[in-house]
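Minutes, project check-in

Agenda point 3 was the complex the collaborators sent over. CS summarized: two entities, 302 residues total, and the question is how they sit relative to each other. Sequences were read into the notes so everyone works from the same version.
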Amino acid sequence: MKIVIAGGFGVGKTTAVGAISEIQPLRTEALMTSAGAEIDRTGHVPAKTTTTVALDFGCITIDDDVKLYLFGTPGQDRFGFMWHDIVHGALGALVIVDTRRMDDCYPAVDYFEKAGMPFVVGVNLFDGVLAHDLEDIRWALAVNEEVPVVTLDARDRISVRDALLAVLHHTFRRVRTQRTSTVT
Amino acid sequence: MPEQDPDVTLLRPYLLTSGRAQPVDHTLEIETQVVTSDRGAASRQSLTFERRDIVELCRTTMSVAEIAARLGLHIGVARVLVADLAALGHVIVCRPAAALNQDLGMIERVIRGLEAIR
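CS then shared the predicted structure for the full assembly.
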């Protein structure tokens, strides 16, 4: 099983994975090719772009038969549309936000909303300080009312654990609601 | 480990997998668990390079992503190689019957496992 850890560059994804993973976070690379949907900064549409992106990931043993992998999305979130293989089949996602650079998380939030993947926003407390009210952050991110917005310290195991639990509880409620709404 | 030369690095994933971009088994997720079969363990000597490395590595059950990371392979290449080895019966791929990420029992199980972390 897996949970995706998303968010902009440097928000603390690898730190969060490292704080809770039983194994030292591993890195693998994916070759990603875009068919030219991306317009680069010079205004050109490349015919085809092949990029290597790094995936940092960790693992937690849940029980004898189940392991939970935490996959961090590549730092270059503008390649979000290439995430399918990372995200497909995930239990949910944690989008980590740095309030100093909130824009950086928009691609991730957009992606999960469009994909219908349950996600939680985790505001990383750098220096343990929450500079804004959580409701202000929710408004600034323009996320749906039902999306949980929590705080976390990406360096702290229990804090990361609690954020992951928030993801799972949210997913559970979503799946259960979908189940009951399809029963006639 | 991948060479430093960028041209070779770009070529290499395709040489390894004979130019096939799609693995035999399309349902191989990056977190799919892989373990070497008895046949695979016995056939080790007849395999070469990355295939042998994978069969050796998967004596301990691990995910496709871990295989890629530990052998320095691109994840797409690892998926193709693992799918090939599974088709040949050298490794066993653990595939759930249905989408477990939508299974309430599984979600609860993972919750319990995380709650146990202190």
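Noted in discussion: Chain A touches chain B at residues 1-2, 20, 26-31, 50, 52, 55, 57, 59-63, 66-69, 71, 85-86, 88-92, 157-158, 161, 164-165, 168-169, 171-172, 175-176, 179 (CB under 8 Å).
Follow-up: revisit at the next meeting once the mutant set is ready.
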